Amino acid sequence: MLRPLKLFGLFARISILNEVQYRANFFMQVLQSSLSLGTGLIVLNVVYSYTDNLGGWSQAELLAVYGVFVLMSGLIGSLVLPNMWAFMEDVREGRLDFTLTKPEDSQVLISVRVVAIWRLVDVLLGIVVLGVAIGRMGLEASWWLAFAFAATLIMGMILLYCVLLLASILSFWFVRVWELMEMMQSIFQAGRWPVGIYPDWLRLGLTYLIPVAFAVTVPAEALTGRLTPELLAGTFVFTLVALFVTRRLWMFGLRNYSGASA
Amino acid sequence: MQRVQGFAQRVKASLQVYAVGARIAMLERLQYPLASLMFMVNVLIEPIIYLVVWSSATAAQGGAVGGYTAGQFAGYYIIWTFVRQFNLAVGPDSFNWRIKNGSLAGELLRPIHPIDIDLGWNLGFKVMQVVYWIPIGVILWLMFKPEVNPQGWQLLSFPIVLMLAAYVRFFVMWLVGLICFWTERIDSLIELYFAAELLFSGRLVPLEIMPVWAQKIAGYLPFQWTFYFPIELLLGRVTMSEFWMGVLAQVAWILAAYVGIRLVWVRAVRRFTAVGA
CB distance B56–A55 less than 8 Å? Predict the structure, then answer.
């Protein structure tokens, strides 16, 4: 259990050392993140200038949803997505062979290699937005709330990791899957709003196909006191199943990988 | 007489270039139907999100928000998806990778202006996108029950306005893209450009619903003529005088961007040093 974390720490250090060489990129990221945050907040304000509730969510609560969305985008964008892109590139170029020959678990290796540290700016901004939202909601802090929020956030991130990895694994069979990845990223945008407002067919897709619901709405529900213990348990089971299936398909995909340089 | 003939010949040559470019783009789109489908989902997710958001808001407010009924919102965003297929343009960042990977060097060697290559390719791309759009448009129409009531003249003038909208967006973006000749770091600038487009074009939210300050800013920018104006026209919400104002603005922006491109292009090419030729 500790070994993957140690590997992650090692690779994270290398990534950080690499990226602090290009400090201008930090300011670029700050600019870009503030821009998209600003746009999102303006739209939120416009919507709530015409109504005071959207699918049963008040403005402060929706601000919390948006905060979780920004936070989660930052986490996925810095920790998961760069690894997936690198992995797909490796399959295409045949460099995956080098990873497979290393004496570590290959799935762990390809999952922790890159950390895009500047994207963590979004994590900070998300926390700030969440802080403001929590202040406005007048939330009573409790251990249960903190625990439920942290747990659902982590499980949401794991679920997104599983789905993104599943999509990337497809590159073992179809080399060109980046369109699929881009599609999933744009569908993730639907998470800015609570999935409850979407029509049934879309909500189902956003829950099980691309788990935006688990990644953003459920943590926000935990924070706003809507989460039932049953839903928490269900999320937990779903996460375990997703991890198991992903692992299985990774092994299966590896057997199909024929190498390019060998 | 000779000059007229020369001009006619040049027009004919350009049209041929466009036809060939369009054909290549169409074949490319046909070659990857799955990729085209996913691209379509990419383009469509945005209006569907906002269609749902505004539908919920109208439901919470009991029927209408800011002068739009739920059916009109549905109409707005469904027409949006159609207009979007037409105003797809070559992104400003395309120059970045064309310069970086050296393909621009090859394009410059040809006896055709790169913008002509793009115009033709973009045309074919649009045609195929519209073909792919048709089934999706039908499904959306049946699902969300839009209220679209254009009068005869609005319906008839829509294709022209749509075409003008497409070329406002195309030329303005091409002009913005030329910045790549001066700096490689244009990611943030492009982000800024698209953020402005999202807010001031009616892409996220119909402009009428935006706060007054945003509407004022939008008046100085080209964006509303590429989304809001054609959509509102087909919805049947544009008066005759607004229509003429809009068409005039569209033509003015196309001309301004065209002149801009002519002025900047000569200077841009002079700065260009070929890579990887």
Answer: yes
User: Which chain B residues have a beta carbon less than 8 Å from that of A38?
Assistant: 195
CB A116 within 8 A of CB A122: no
Gap from B6 CA to chain A (nearest CA, Å):
45
For residue A199, report the phi and psi dihedrals to the nearest 5 degrees. Answer: -65, 160
Write the pLDDT tens digit of every residue in B223-242.
999 999 999 999 999 999 99
Q: What percent of chain A has pLDDT over 70?
A: 98
Phi and psi at B145, nearest 5°, equal: 45, 70
Beta-carbon separation of B211 and A46 below 8 A = yes
Contact yes or no for B107/B98 (Cβ under 8 A):
yes
**Residue B125, min C-alpha distance to chain A (Å):** 17
Domain boundaries, chain B: 2-271
- The per-residue pLDDT for B25 is 85
Pairing of strands B64-65, B68-69: antiparallel
A146 touches chain B (CB under 8 A): no
- DSSP 3-state of B125: helix
- Positions of chain B with pLDDT under 70: 1-2, 274-277
pLDDT of A141 > 80? The answer is: no
How far apart are the C-alpha atoms of A208 and A237, rounded to whole Å? 13
Tokens of A91: 């399959």
CA A30 to CA A124: how far, in whole Å?
Answer: 10
What is the DSSP-derived secondary structure letter of residue A141? P
For chain B, the residues whose C-beta falls within 8 A of a C-beta of chain A are 34-35, 38-39, 41-42, 45-46, 48-49, 52-54, 56-57, 60-61, 65-66, 143, 185, 187-188, 191-192, 195, 198-199, 204-205, 209-211, 214
Distances (CA, A) of B251 to A69, B92, B94, B160, B257: 40, 21, 25, 11, 10
Indicate the DSSP class of residue A58.
-
Q: What is the mean pLDDT of residues A208-230?
A: 90
The answer to whether A171 touches A92, Cβ cutoff 8 Å, is yes
CB pairs under 8 A between A and B: 86
Task: Please give the distance of CA A199 from its chain centroid, rounded to a whole number.
Answer: 23
Range of lowest pLDDT (A40-44, A54-58, B95-99, B256-260): B95-99
- Distance of alpha carbon A147 from alpha carbon A152, whole angstroms: 8
The verdict on a CB contact (< 8 Å) between B209 and A50 is yes
Nearest-Cα distance to chain A for B168, in Å, is 23
Q: Which one of A189, A190, A197 has the shortest CB-CB distance to B56?
A: A197
